[in-house]
């Protein structure tokens, strides 16, 4: 049965709420600790990385429990409903740091609420990702679902990446109040998604497999595990950009000349550039659906990532920015290419769920989603760790009072760490897609559509 437009759009709506936390953990936490809480960059990187240890336990456990859940609301919805609230409470707590504490106490406070928010995020995203394999088995329909998802995700990214910093006004207290304002929207988006998809096809019967058998079944799908690794490599490149973007806006993009100077003055340089990035991402969604239909999902993904690296090289050459307007154009192109990274792999991995379900007769979409998301979490955790170590090596100075003077070597390290280094990492992912994954997955992502 074909999904209605409301069901496809409704499924995508949840990602608006999910991506508020994605921006918080990738763009804001590291910069918040190093710029307003006095936490040294290397320590901030290690602490954000340490949350990964929490995910090692919670990801497979929630994936397993989600597949085993039996309720009149289905296997996925109870987790998403409660997880949305836990995620919101954790995010607000991250930025409500009391005044007058040492940097060590500040860091401990942030990490406690970061772990709570991560638990809520996991309880939402793993069941949510599993639904992509249950609602439909049509690859083209999945591409459309992912376009809706990334459209709403872009709004969530805009809310957290542009609206929150603009409301915060570059103050410690301002960030807490700004997140408090947007958190109800985050919860509401997830709850409305549950309501919109309640009549969509789903697999209500829990699997009879134990945790060990479930994980072995998922890992036996070699194409899936390879795609997890490759998407993790690509994610590391993207996450490095995200981790350093706010600091780069403060230290490398201070020029506000050109036609968009008014927008930068009103929102701040970071918020204005991030808004341009989201504009590019939103505009790209229909194009990547079209490209996937014409070229195949895999070829479209490779094409998008190659162009992405070219744009990053162009941004490197323009930094420090002489014109906010020229940088805004480059950020629109970067967002357009990022749309391929956001949409296409998420449309590919449910196709591999189908292979295992057809061969084994077991519906373990939660376990698939857990491993899929865990690969991305590993990359997202490594990114601030790598960035923090790079900046520390080159003498970048932490602060509790906002922008401070930095050495030329520290600024140059920041410049290449958010542009050329991510591009090199992305080329590693591109090579793996073309040389390792393509021969093994030939026809998998397009045969059903035919």
UniProtKB/TrEMBL annotation:
The chain crosses the membrane at residues 12-36, 42-65, 77-97, 109-130, 150-168, 174-194, 224-254, 260-291, 298-317, 323-341, 378-396, 416-437. Keywords: Membrane, Transmembrane, Transmembrane helix. Signal peptide: none annotated. InterPro entries: MFS_2 (IPR039672), MFS_dom (IPR020846), MFS_trans_sf (IPR036259). The keyword Ribonucleoprotein does not apply. It holds the Pfam family MFS_2. Residues 5-440 form the Major facilitator superfamily (MFS) profile domain. Belongs to the sodium:galactoside symporter (TC 2.A.2) family. PANTHER family: MAJOR FACILITATOR SUPERFAMILY (MFS) PROFILE DOMAIN-CONTAINING PROTEIN, MAJOR FACILITATOR SUPERFAMILY DOMAIN-CONTAINING PROTEIN. This is MFS transporter. It comes from Cognatishimia coralii.
